[in-house]
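Per reviewer request, we include the raw input and output of the structure prediction for the construct analysed in the revised manuscript.
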Amino acid sequence: MKKILISGGQAVLISVVVVSIIVLGCGGELHNDHDGHDHSSHASAESKVATPKHALNEGEDENHDGEHSDHDGDNEDEDGEHAGHDDGEHEGEDCQDGAEGANHVELTSEQRSRINLEVAVASPGAIVLASTFPGEITLNPDRTVHVVPRSAGIVREAIGNLGDRVEAGEILAWIESDELAEAKLSYYAKQAEVGCCMIKLPRAKAIYENTGKLLALLKKEAPQKELHKLDGQEMGEWRGRLLTANAEYLASRKTYERERNLRAKEIASGQELLDAETTYKKAREEFQAAMDAARYETLIAYSEATQERQVAEFEAVAAEKRLRLKGADNEVVAGLLKLVPKAASLEPCFCDDPNCQEDELPSVTDTLGEDKRFAWYAIRAPFAGFIIEKHLTLGEKVNGDEGVFSIADTSSVWVRFSVYQKDIGLVRPGQTVRVALGPSGSREGEVAYISPVIDEQTRSVQARVVLDNEDGALRPGLYVTVSMAARPQDATVVIPQLAIQVLNEKEVVFVESGDGFDAVSVKLGAADREKVEIVSGLRPGQRYVVRGAFDLKAKIVTSGLDAHAGHGH
């Protein structure tokens, strides 16, 4: 520790230096009005301060020999040094307080009008808290499709390319499939069977109905002229069988009646009567059996024909479904169906009727022709969108269980966002939220879904918002921020955000004081987009600057710069 001997005059000069340093360090904040400031006096003061500094150096050199004094003297000097340091610290704190209180601005009426100064009274209010959540724009799975080939085959034409915009029904590729060819032939055969049943069923129905009419006439023993009315109407084998049995029955009955009369007159023997009676009863039973059989068998034949037609129609529908599943479209099905009536109208037809003569009909191959695209089918876009994936090439074999195209309709997108456990109660389906898109602005939507399960890793639940994207501005993969308004929170003092300014790294509010305004340090609380809560520093009823606070801050800052400019800092 060096000891410096200071004379009385030097002590005075040192005191001047210390005071000058303190004054210069605080002058920028203590004096806002620098009009008429005497810069020459500063120069003079600086020259006076320089002189004792030089003298101090000389004194230090002159008294260098006295550095090594006794140890007690060192302790005394150290105590004095610490005492001086403490005094300096207290002086700085007082200066700080004085500078903060000196942030006072006075304005004329003209100045107030120029900056559109607006003053309001501090009062209670409500802060609408907003909760925000991280999110991401994704494709809408409901409008994204992975196109799978209907059946295995070979790629004959690949039309759609990655990134292409396609319309609904547009052809993306052509596939040749033997499964499709088999399905076409099966559909054609089943439709031919349906056409054949259109012949069998009307005939079975006519036999059933006409036989029933004949049975009714025979039962009431109608005269022959009424029976002749049914001549030419189709009854199959039952016309001959019923009429024959009826004739035998009537003849045996007449013979029996005659023998009975002769026996009564004792002309015929008893054996002859017995034989006639036996023949009569036998004919009657055979006739009754014939009628029962005709009624039953014609009904069964009619029912079976109806069932065969229904089964044939059902199989034809099933064949059409299989055909479509293999890749055939409406045009292919309609083309095959046009060919069916030509074969079905021929007699004989493709059926198990004994009258059918299949060798007289043209072959299916001749009827359908030999079109090279007979086994081709088209892969079409199910709806309008963009091709985002393509997994086939010309000549490649594709299976019926692997996607070859992915198409996305970006006119509607999802916004997925995570809601942490503490905020779950703030989010509910149907709630309106705002999706911030960065420089692109923001959009509003409604919460469409909230997962009922909390993720074990992140301790959050997934929620989503569905947004319209007709303009294509919302690109899947973009990160966004989802915000939603919570319940309003009441506060004792609430002021607009624009009234808050930062001065000397502190939030301040300009409070009306006399003819001017003081920059008062405040403590902020909760805030929303427009308002902020004042926890301390501003009391209800105080008048504060709402509009023009920035101009007041600028005046204080520029005044401080002007003050320091005169010191050459």
